[in-house]
Specification:
binds flavin-adenine dinucleotide; 9 helices; 8-stranded mixed beta sheet; 6-stranded mixed beta sheet; 2 domains; alpha/beta; 373 residues
């Protein structure tokens, strides 16, 4: 490999989108992952994509979400044309249920020019007739969208392959080989990988690399469980209440998520998680009581001790970069994260404060574990 080659560690949505972004800019990329099939958080997630307007975003973290919301339709049709795989991107709209309207949030949405509307009880009946009428403080976001995660990962993988990205699966990177301020290689059970630049997109497993680089930010797993149910109820919009949501997938399938559990690298599912999600779904839509549960899975979100992801160059190495710790927002911010990493690597100016993502930040507020397993 020559000094322009890039190795990315971790083929979740952040690593794949970054590989795609670099490869389409004619950079030679290799992507290494420890698990075949990469059924990690990126596969397990709900694929909710909130709306946004990057030109009016209040801070770099909002910019990531807003820019991605603008990039997703373009990326999705590009991937469809290129690979013939439809990732299911669809502006289905979303209904957020709250106990009272929050004027501070409404001001922030208005400042970013995000379309939203308080829904009267009467309109709610026609928009979501099956919603329990006790949930009457509802805000409608017509531009909220969704994507089918497994299809999106498949499309990105295929596109990367077509662009010449080399994949190394079932290969765990165990350490960095350094010479002064330079990373010269990566250690693995299958030998050493050399390149000019290295990017760590290892999701909740990124912590080991941060420790090696003496970066005082913690990245850790927070488990989320998810149910897939089959129902004959027709509904189109995503329904969100606090940390829970129902996402209609078409053909009577609905996703119900999600728990937030601090249980280490334990990717199993629990009967308590299943019951909690089922109860929560029925509290929102009582008729889901008759729905059939057809699948139940979990994923490990990359929690971060900062309240935003860690994106940028390591302060300890001239050619090592991180894009990790996206917690609940990794899918919805993946296209802009990839663009940002590419612009940092190629020293382009995107007009946002890159340093924001590498500064130490406030302590992460993880909810008390919902369930112990
Ligand atoms: C139930 C659930 C619902 C969610 N819903 C949403 C949602 O609606 N919208 C949203 O935006 N986000 C959502 N998220 C969060 C989102 O899925 C994550 O933020 C995102 O997937 C993180 O992507 P990633 O690429 O950083 O990590 P991952 O998907 O975890 O990928 C990291 C990869 O790195 C590999 N790796 C790690 N260490 C090594 C190593 N040493 N050597 C080689 N490979 C390594 C792993 O095998 C893995 O494949 C959800 C998450 C869950 C669990």
């Amino acid at each position: 490999m020559d000094s322009q080659d890039v190795i990315i560690v971790g083929a979740g949505v952040i690593g794949l989108n970054t590989a795609y972004e670099l490869a389409r800019n004619k950079i030679k990329v290799s992507l290494i992952d420890q698990f075949l099939g990469y059924r990690k958080a990126s596969w397990a997630g709900a694929g909710i994509i909130p709306p946004g307007n990057p030109d009016l975003a209040a801070n770099p973290a909002d910019w990531l979400r807003a820019k991605s919301s603008q990039l997703f339709p373009v990326l999705s049709s590009e991937l469809l044309q290129f690979t013939n795989i439809n990732n299911g991107y669809f502006k289905c709209g979303g209904l957020e249920l709250t106990s009272c309207y929050d004027e501070t949030n409404e001001q922030a949405w208005a400042n970013e020019n995000i379309n939203f509307e308080r829904i009267s009880e009467i309109n709610l009946k026609s928009l979501a007739p099956h919603l329990d009428p006790k949930h009457c403080k509802t805000t409608y976001f017509p531009e909220m969208a969704q994507i089918r995660n497994p299809r999106h990962l498949k499309a990105l993988t295929e596109a990367c392959k077509l662009l010449g990205v080399r994949f190394y699966n079932d290969c765990k990177i165990t350490g960095l080989i350094k010479k002064g301020q330079q990373v010269i290689g990566l250690e693995s059970g299958s030998g050493v990988f050399n390149a000019g630049q290295f990017i760590i997109t290892a999701g909740p497993w990124s912590g080991d690399f941060l420790q090696e680089e003496k970066i005082d930010t913690h990245i850790f797993p927070i488990r989320g469980q998810m149910l897939l149910m089959q129902t004959s109820l027709p509904f189109k919009e995503i329904i969100l209440k606090e940390k829970c949501y129902i996402v209609p997938r078409g053909e009577g399938l609905v996703l119900v998520g999600s728990t937030e559990e601090d249980v280490g690298f334990n990717g199993s599912t629990t009967s308590e998680g299943k019951d909690y999600l089922f109860k929560m779904a029925c509290d929102l839509i009582p008729q889901l009581n008759n729905a059939k549960i057809i699948d139940h899975w979990s994923g490990l979100r990359p929690g971060c001790s900062k309240n935003s992801p860690l994106i940028g160059k390591s302060p300890e190495s001239d050619n090592l970069y991180f894009a990790a710790g996206h917690f609940r927002q990794g899918l919805q911010t993946s296209p802009a994260t990839a663009l940002l990493i590419k612009s940092i690597l190629m020293q382009e100016d995107l007009g946002i404060d890159n340093q924001y993502f590498m500064k130490p930040n406030e302590q992460f507020q993880v909810s008390k574990p919902l369930f112990q397993s």
